[in-house]
Amino acid sequence: DADVTQTPRNRITKTGKRIMLECSQTKGHDRMYWYRQDPGLGLRLIYYSFDVKDINKGEISDGYSVSRQAQAKFSLSLESAIPNQTALYFCATSDYSDTGELFFGEGSRLTVL
Amino acid sequence: GQNIDQPTEMTATEGAIVQINCTYQTSGFNGLFWYQQHAGEAPTFLSYNVLDGLEEKGRFSSFLSRSKGYSYLLLKELQMKDSASYLCAALDSNYQLIWGAGTKLIIKP
Prior knowledge:
- The complex is a heterodimer of chains A (113) and B (109).
- With 113 residues, chain A is mostly beta strands.
- In chain A, 0% of the residues lie in helices and 54% in strands.
- Chain A has no helices and eleven strands.
- In chain A, the strands form two sheets. In chain A, strands 2, 4, 5, 6, 9, 10 and 11 form a seven-stranded mixed beta sheet that branches. A four-stranded antiparallel beta sheet of chain A has the order 1-3-8-7, with no helix packed on it.
- In chain A, strand 5 and strand 6 (54-57) form a beta hairpin.
- Chain A starts with a strand and ends with a strand.
- With 109 residues, chain B is an all-beta fold.
- Chain B is 0% helix and 57% strand.
- The A-B interface holds A 4, 40-45, 90, 98-99, 101-107 and B 4, 8, 30-31, 33, 35, 40-45, 48, 50, 87, 89, 91, 95-102.
């Protein structure tokens, strides 16, 4: 089983719908992240959390919200999906080190029609 | 502004050597990462450099020059499985990762 698991892996939805992407990890890491990846662009940080009581906005948080339900779980919500939120979304974890490597989930491909 | 530049695509031959360059401009600098990403898959860590010089790890090596804002990833004895995108990312003064768009490496037999 993967150390960082994302569900769903693929989702097609319509404009205006609420969508939740879930991430769980078995690595025991405190730090968790949500990124989106678009063709021709680098990974962009949406939100990150350094522990259960810590939530921080990334560079593109508008239109998204997150919840850190437990050390191992970090979910991303799109309250009202729009077509330009069509992208590949990755959850990632890292240990306490600022220079620690990121461990990515397998990605969730979201299409908003 | 903060920026990472790397070539969009490169082509190389199986068994050969390829060098993928990355230049960065960040507010402060706390190190540079290289990740590999196969199509449709998650990125996986390759290397981290914070001091000037070359770090070798098997067939892959990564070089950093802090004064020039420059890094490269060197892949030797290329194999078909090395066909992937290679992502360069720099840590800024706030320990935020700034990502390049990635270099798609195509390996031909």
